[in-house]
UniProtKB/TrEMBL annotation:
<dbReference type="InterPro" id="IPR036047">
    <property type="entry name" value="F-box-like_dom_sf"/>
</dbReference>
<dbReference type="InterPro" id="IPR041567">
    <property type="entry name" value="COI1_F-box"/>
</dbReference>
<dbReference type="InterPro" id="IPR032675">
    <property type="entry name" value="LRR_dom_sf"/>
</dbReference>
<feature type="domain" description="COI1 F-box">
    <location>
        <begin position="16"/>
        <end position="56"/>
    </location>
</feature>
<dbReference type="Pfam" id="PF18511">
    <property type="entry name" value="F-box_5"/>
</dbReference>
<feature type="domain" description="Transport inhibitor response 1">
    <location>
        <begin position="76"/>
        <end position="121"/>
    </location>
</feature>
<dbReference type="InterPro" id="IPR041101">
    <property type="entry name" value="Transp_inhibit"/>
</dbReference>
<dbReference type="Pfam" id="PF18791">
    <property type="entry name" value="Transp_inhibit"/>
</dbReference>
<protein>
    <submittedName>
        <fullName>Coronatine-insensitive protein 1</fullName>
    </submittedName>
</protein>
Length: 202
């Protein structure tokens, strides 16, 4: 009985011995997603603190979760990487219209993720309207946009990015299928952006 009481005291001490302030200071130095996941499993309070302090998330497959769940779980995200089609799409083993649309994610980002500064879509279908919505809602704060092996958009969509995303430091379009209409989007970037460091559209 006495031994059980000692164990209970040690458990209580563990649960209350570290204040939220101290834990938040520690969490800002923990970046590995596996370590973060382990921390969130310790107790409900640690789960909540992880939710509030997590800055970057990678979703390996866009259909494994929902936009609403992402918003509730990590409301203060600054960076999001979202993957759509499986790797088989790179070898033409999946139809172009298989899925992986960014539209619901862009809508959620536009409405709720005020802190988001970096966005990376990989193997997803992006429409010109998606880029326009993103530029109008997050253009003032967006610093990095990567459309990696994406399709479905044209230079018209990039025009909105060039004219409204004036804090953009990285624009990555490598291996994306871009419908060429004109080169005005490059002119917009040149006229409106003085901080761009990386532009890749090979």
């Amino acid at each position: 009985m006495e031994e059980n009481d000692k164990k209970l005291q040690r458990t209580a001490s563990f649960n209350t011995g570290m204040s939220d302030v101290v834990l938040e200071c520690v969490l800002q130095y923990v970046h590995d997603p596996r370590d973060r996941a382990a921390i969130s499993l310790v107790c409900r309070r640690w789960y909540e603190l992880d939710s509030l302090s997590r800055k970057h998330i990678t979703i390996a497959f866009c259909y494994t979760t929902t936009t609403d769940r992402l918003r509730r779980r990590f409301p203060f995200l600054e960076s999001l990487k979202l993957k759509g089609k499986p790797r088989a799409a790179m070898f033409n083993l999946i139809p172009d219209d298989w899925g992986g649309y960014v539209t619901p994610w862009v809508r959620e980002i536009a409405e709720n993720f005020d802190c988001l500064r970096s966005l990376h879509f990989r193997r997803m279908i992006v429409r010109d309207l998606d880029l326009e919505v993103l530029a109008r809602s997050r253009g003032k704060v967006l610093q990095a946009l990567k459309l990696d092996k994406c399709s479905g958009f044209s230079t018209d969509g990039l025009f909105h990015i060039g004219s409204l995303c004036r804090q953009l430091r990285t624009l990555f379009l490598e291996e994306s299928s871009i419908i060429e209409r004109d080169g005005e989007w490059l002119h917009e970037i040149a006229m409106n952006n003085s901080v761009l460091e990386t532009l890749n559209f090979t």
